[in-house]
Design a protein that fits this description.
With 148 residues, the protein is an alpha+beta fold. The chain has one domain: Thiol Ester Dehydrase, Chain A. It is globular. Belongs to the thioesterase PaaI family.
Length: 148
């Protein structure tokens, strides 16, 4: 049986539309890089991701950040499911329909019960759209029981 890292490594360069996350599948990101402490995903802003001003909705940006952090945390190989206990997001600039956005997430600290992540969404020109930090806490649910 492949490890979570093996599974996601096989998806590099592919659209993320068949992962265990239905919400993440809707985003249709493309996995660019993955390791046990880092992930990079590219998203293209679609009209259905936008607010009435036709710019990326903050809730969708938050979903991108939370989902990528969740994928990256899954790849760490933890025996137990971990879930977000917080997500702090700063929205720093807007993104327009059709723009490509690169999201990177990095593991800052891995503890016995909590993993701390930081993530950034950037435009092609390097400008930061949003940045986040999140803590993931270990649950009592074994990953092997999820049948993913």
């Amino acid at each position: 049986m492949p490890t979570p890292l093996d599974f996601f490594t096989s998806l590099i360069g592919k659209k993320l539309d068949h992962t265990p996350s239905s919400a993440g599948n809707w985003l249709e990101g493309t996995l660019l890089e993955v390791s046990k402490s880092h992930i990079k995903v590219r998203y293209q802003v679609r009209p259905d991701m936008c607010n009435p001003a036709r710019i990326l909705h903050g809730g969708v940006a938050s979903l991108m950040l939370d989902d990528a952090i969740g994928m990256a945390n899954f790849v760490t190989g933890t025996e137990y499911l971990m879930t977000s206990i917080n997500l702090s997001v700063d929205f720093l600039s807007s993104a327009q329909i059709g723009e490509d956005l690169d999201l990177t997430a990095d593991l800052v600290r891995s503890g016995a019960n909590i993993n701390h992540w930081e993530a950034v969404i950037r435009k092609n020109n390097g400008k930061i759209v949003a940045k986040a930090s999140s803590n993931m806490i270990k649950t009592h649910v074994k990953m092997s029981d999820l049948k993913l």
